[in-house]
Amino acid sequence: MSKESDEKRELLKLKQGIISESEVIEQDVHEQPEKQTVAKKIDNFFFRNKWFVAAGAFFAAVGFFLVYQAVTREQPDLTVILAVSDTSKAPGLYQKINDIELALEKYCPDFDGNGYVHVAVYSIDLTKSGNMQYIQSNTAKFYGEIERGVAELYICDADLLTGETSTEDYDPDDNTIALTYENMFSDIGKALEMPEYNGKLRIDLKDTGFVYDAKWENSCPDTLAFSVRREEPGMVSYSKSEEYQKRAKEVLKNILTGNKVNDTEVGSSTVQGE
Predict the structure, then answer these.
(1) What is the pLDDT of residues 115-150, one digit of tens each?
(2) Residues 193-218: pLDDT tens digits?
(3) Helix/strand/coil (H, E, C) string of the chain?
């Protein structure tokens, strides 16, 4: 008989249970798979997915950094808006922002009690000529700051809101009114309880000692002035802006009276004077 016939006969016997093993049929010997430890499985996972793991780790690190920055970032004691209607009338203005911040810090108390004083000045260019997208972006930024209600002290020119009083800006359905200088800013005399300034919505920077602190006495534009955002009890925005309003008034009053509450500079912040 052939080897093939013998194997078939032996296979039949195996299936019927007559025999349990056969010397005729070659048995395949299969190696048992290596038993993997937990460490080995983890190592294999990282090896096979190393690029996904690397990408995930990178984005996780970026996310952690952003959250850390947001949590630990020093909040300013005072926020000020520097806005001009035409930058051509105030050349080199934005290069002065650091000097302006340092000068304001001389008059700003440590409102949050952390031992340091920081005033943040945000500049907004409201020039009406030029790239329309740029104009719209800055206009939206300006109105966004007004809505936010954090900046209550402004450095701006008298033409800041010129052209914002057309009837198109008035919506009777939601009881809003167009922004004008008169309805946006306070009477400084009444706001600061300083009768000598009654009826004034603006205090020219050049009429204060602030320009000397900002090293600006020779080049400060004549058009720029301090104004305080109009916030009164009963106004919708008053509840969220009340604290910022008090800070703005106190700092401006210190400027007008020459009361420098800080006299030692440390970096970009100042330490409360004795």
Answers:
(1) 889 999 999 988 888 788 988 898 888 888 888 888
(2) 999 999 999 999 999 999 999 999 99
(3) CCHHHHHHHHHHHHHHCCCCCCCCCCCCCCCCCCCCCHHHHHHHHHHHCHHHHHHHHHHHHHHHHHHHHHHHCCCCCEEEEEEECCHHHCCCHHHHHHHHHHHHHCCCCCCCCCCCECEEEEEEECCCCCCHHHHHHHHHHHHHHHHHCCCCEEEEECCCCCCCCCHHHCECCCCECCCCHHHHECCHHHHHCCHHHCCCCCEEHHHCCHHHHCCCCCCCCCCEEEEEECCCCCCCCHHHHHHHHHHHHHHHHHHHHCCCCEEEEECCEEEECC
